[in-house]
Automatic annotation (TrEMBL):
Keywords: Membrane, Transmembrane, Transmembrane helix. InterPro entries: DUF7144. Residues 17-130 form the DUF7144 domain. It comes from Fodinibacter luteus. Pfam families: DUF7144 (PF23636). The keyword Transmembrane applies. The lineage of its organism: Bacteria, Bacillati, Actinomycetota, Actinomycetes, Micrococcales. The chain crosses the membrane at residues 12-40, 60-79, 84-103, 109-127. This is DUF7144 domain-containing protein. The keyword Repeat does not apply.
């Protein structure tokens, strides 16, 4: 039998995917903290400009807490090398970017930073995600 030797996964690709998984965990934890702040202190965030999504800060708080927990759990399972977690990671990172876009009137710089990290995570999981399962 002529068995093809398995190609060694790229260390750079594995490193990028691990970094993306850690970023997912951090984004999730930070979003949960952001939501907790919105629940505890209604005067911390001040809406500068009205958008179409004008939820109460308590509603925003719960949205951020729930999404943050899901994002962090997805990041944990991406670190474990689960194939389904990469798909879930891309989906929740996309949702996180959308939620933070709607959150821009309340905290613009923070929202833009999280959106940028979400875009990186989506790129890393779609381009290099399969290398972590082979490593």
């Amino acid at each position: 039998m002529n068995a093809q030797p398995a190609t060694e996964p790229s260390r750079t690709a594995v490193g990028v995917t691990v970094f993306a998984a850690v970023m997912l965990i951090m984004i999730g934890v930070l979003q949960a903290i952001q939501g907790l702040v919105a629940l505890v202190n209604d005067t911390f965030y001040v809406a500068g400009q009205e958008y179409i999504f004008t939820f109460d800060l308590t509603t925003w708080g719960w949205i951020h807490i729930l999404l943050g927990v899901v994002v962090a759990v997805a990041g944990y399972f991406v670190l474990q090398g689960k194939v389904w977690a990469r798909t879930v990671g891309v989906i929740v990172a996309s949702l996180s970017a959308l939620v933070n876009f709607a959150w821009l009137p309340h905290y613009p710089l923070w929202g833009l930073a999280i959106i940028a990290l979400d875009v990186f995570v989506i790129w890393a999981l779609t381009v290099h995600g399969r290398d972590i399962t082979r490593a």
